[in-house]
Structures are given as C-alpha cells and as structure tokens.
Write a structure and sequence with these properties.
By secondary structure, the protein is an alpha+beta fold. Helix content is 43%, strand content 16%. The protein has 3 helices and 7 strands. The strands form 2 sheets. It has a 4-stranded antiparallel beta sheet, with no helix packed on it. The protein has a 3-stranded antiparallel beta sheet with strand order 2-6-5, with no helix packed on it. It is rod-shaped.
Length: 210
C-alpha cells in the first residue's frame, strides 16, 4: 500500500444524510455516529504505519550505500561550503578564547613579577653627619636608624682624601651576617665605627637595600 491508499475522499455514512427524525434503532444510530471517526482513525494509523516502513527502508538504503557514514564528498558544493564556514568560525572562536586566556595568564604573571620586583628592589638613600670627638681612645661609633633591618648598606664620604689617612677607603659595604670593620647591620639600621664617623669628613652618604 502507499500513502494515497489511505486517502479519504468521502465518509461512508454522513450524519447529514439522516432524516431529521431518524427511525433507526439506537444501536444502529450510534454506529452511524461512530463510523466517520473510525474511518479517520484507521486512515491516520495506516499513514503512520507506512511512514515507519518508509523510514526503515531509507535507513537501510543509507547503510547499504554509504556504510552508515556520510562524508564530505557526498554533500553538495553549497552545503559543503556552508559546513566548512561554520567549522572555520568555530575554530576561530576557540582560538580567540584560548588567546584571551593566554593573555590574561601573561598579564597576571607580569603583575605578580612587578610586585615581586618592587619588593626586592627597595632602595633607601640618605646621609649622616660625623660626630667624632677627636678622642682615639673611644670607639665613637654612630648608629643610624632606618626603621628596618637592611640586607646591605654602602657608605661613602664626600672627601675620600680625608678618610684615607685613617685606614678607610672611599666606600664600605656591610651585608647581613657579614659586618666589616667600619659598618655593621643592626635590626633597625646600621652602625659605623669611628673611621666612618669623622666630623671632618661629613656628610657621609649611604645606600641601604631593604
């Protein structure tokens, strides 16, 4: 059978064909009222059955012809081009998303490195005046407060010739746990010996690394 075999051109019994006062028995009258819906039900069910059989046949043809797989070469040029465009757009979207994530990660790393660099490169510069009283029998040390314990201190004088006679050189360096005879690190700054505390050689300039 085909779909057209289920076509209803006219119902077998029409209600309008009955007289205004039917003389039929009750059971026959009821059958007349039910006949048209029943014909319609059977026709619809028949169409559904034919559609199921057609779907099964089409699926079988696809499997037999293409091996259950339809590749790109089986498509029309227009459809193939449209699918290629959609695939390219999807790939570009994925690439753009990945690039955004990569740029964000790079920006985060740069921000973190900038923060660490600033923390590792804090430099404090200053100077102090000598306060030696001229008495070689005293140590005449001087403590300079910075408010923190530096990692290293470099001290120099504006007049190298004046300190050379006292065994000092142009610059002295002290680092944590490695004091020199002239400069030592303290918990709040640094301390200098009398050779770097000569009133005649001031001002003494220093650079402290935090």
């Amino acid at each position: 059978m085909s779909f057209s075999d289920h076509k209803i051109t006219a119902f077998q019994h029409k209600i309008t064909d009955l007289p205004d006062q039917p003389s039929l028995p009750a059971n026959e009258l009821k059958a007349r009222f039910d006949s048209s819906p029943e014909e319609l039900r059977q026709a619809v069910n028949g169409i559904c059955d034919e559609a199921s059989r057609l779907e099964a046949r089409v699926e079988g043809i696809v499997v037999d012809t293409f091996g259950d797989t339809i590749d790109r070469e089986m498509l029309s040029e227009e459809l193939s081009a449209e699918l290629d465009a959609k695939a390219t757009q999807a790939a570009l979207s994925d690439e753009a998303g990945a690039r955004v994530q990569s740029d964000k990660a790079l920006a985060d790393r740069l921000t973190a490195n900038e923060t660490l660099t600033a923390q590792k490169c804090e430099i404090y510069c200053g100077s102090y005046a000598g306060s030696w009283d001229g008495d070689y029998s005293h140590s005449n040390t001087k403590t300079v407060s910075l408010g923190f314990q530096p990692k290293a201190v470099i001290i120099s004088s504006s007049n190298a010739s004046n300190i050379a006679g006292y065994g000092a050189t142009l610059a002295h360096i002290a680092v944590e746990d490695a004091a020199s005879p002239y400069v030592s690190i303290t918990s709040t700054g640094f301390q200098v010996s009398r050779y770097m505390n000569l009133s005649a050689n001031g001002p003494f300039r220093y650079v402290a690394l935090k």
